[in-house]
User: What shape does this take?
Amino acid sequence: MSILLLPFRAVWRLVTLIFELTGRLIAIILGLVLLIVGVLVSLTVIGAIIGIPLAIFGFLLLVRGLF
Assistant: This one.
């Protein structure tokens, strides 16, 4: 019976792998964008209140996407 289900399992694993890789790629890109925006916003004194946490969040999202 498991031989009959083998093609379905293979397709399911392929779809799961594609979703995992896409999620990681989006997390890396979004983390990098937030990191850059956070650094640019924190160049001003008033913007540092929002920019520093934004840069930290972007860095953490980037690390999460890589590992």
